[in-house]
Design brief:
Blueprint: E1 2-12, E2 18-28, E3 37-43, H1 51-61, E4 66-70, H2 86-98, H3 101-117, E5 121-130, H4 132-143, E6 150-154, E7 182-188, H5 196-208, E8 213-218, H6 237-256
Parallel strand pairs: 3-4, 3-5, 5-6, 6-7, 7-8
Antiparallel strand pairs: 1-2, 2-4
Helix pairs in contact: 3-4
């Protein structure tokens, strides 16, 4: 499917008057200008919307999704991506804990709202993201409630340690019980940012809350394994491809199909071979 790139700047209020750029990757079908698609909010790593993030967004869009990628650090810098170098890394990590949780939540609300206001959106929204963006995709699904139907989070950082935002004391995982979306969490087993203890904590919380979720731990995969540029030797195209298809399965089932209202109840599974 063809993809058109654009952007829009929306006003923000949470941390003073400002504006946030939303990068939009929109699928197009020739001769069908009124086609409607589900939307996916794509939250970036600490470097904002870089080349790898944009390519990832276009890949999702080409499957028939409107992808909206916020520039998360609009309170501190312009919408341009930070460099994959020492100064860029330092700035991204600094902004990550200087921004308020109210600012992050406003960003999510504005991005989801913009998607739902688009005449070409079918009214169903999912979230995804990597690194910082994996955490923000999770938090977006928490704070936006029924407006988000599914979330697919790549190596969500700071979720287990609750160190996101100013004061380094977030409540994202603590509020997991508020989730209405079906979630999928993916981690590399060699991710030094989210060690085994952190992954176990996340799994236990989601299990204890009896949520609809999957959690995958990929043998040999490290942090940033989906970044196809400046990944410091960690990019794994094969694993990325598998994870991408699992994400598409989740989104196609929850965002493209009208499932109707849930009738609740636990499905009885027969013990058969």
């Amino acid at each position: 499917m063809l993809v058109q790139d654009s952007h829009v700047d929306v006003p923000t209020k949470a941390d003073g008057d400002g504006s946030m750029r939303l990068y939009i990757y929109h699928p197009t079908i020739p001769n069908h200008p009124h086609a409607r698609f589900p939307a996916v909010i794509l939250f970036s790593e600490i470097y904002q919307v870089t080349g790898p993030v944009a390519r990832f967004g276009r890949s999702i869009a080409s499957r028939g999704y409107i992808v909206i990628a916020p520039s998360s650090y609009h309170e501190f810098t312009g919408p341009e991506p930070l460099a994959y170098d020492g100064p860029g890394t330092d700035a991204g990590n600094r902004y990550k804990i200087e921004k308020t949780l109210a600012g992050y939540d406003e960003d999510a609300r504005l991005a989801v709202g913009h998607a739902l206001d688009m005449g070409t959106c079918n009214g169903r929204v999912g979230t995804t993201g990597m690194c910082l963006g994996g955490h923000l995709a999770f938090r977006c699904a928490v704070t936006e409630g029924v407006r988000v139907k599914a979330g697919y989070c790549f190596f969500a950082t700071d979720l287990h340690g609750r160190t996101l935002g100013r004061g380094k004391d977030d409540d994202s995982l603590a509020r997991a019980g508020e989730l209405k979306a079906e979630m999928c969490m993916v981690f590399g087993k060699k991710d030094t940012h989210v060690p085994r203890e952190g992954r176990d904590l996340i799994r236990k919380k989601l299990e204890d809350e009896r949520l609809r979720f999957s959690l995958y731990e990929v043998e040999g995969a490290q942090h940033a394994f989906i970044r196809d540029e400046m990944s410091k030797g960690r990019y794994d195209a094969a694993v990325t491809g598998v994870c991408f298809e699992m994400m598409m399965e989740l989104f196609e089932r929850t965002l493209k199909i009208d499932l109707g209202p849930s009738e609740g109840g636990n499905q009885k599974v027969e013990d058969v071979c």
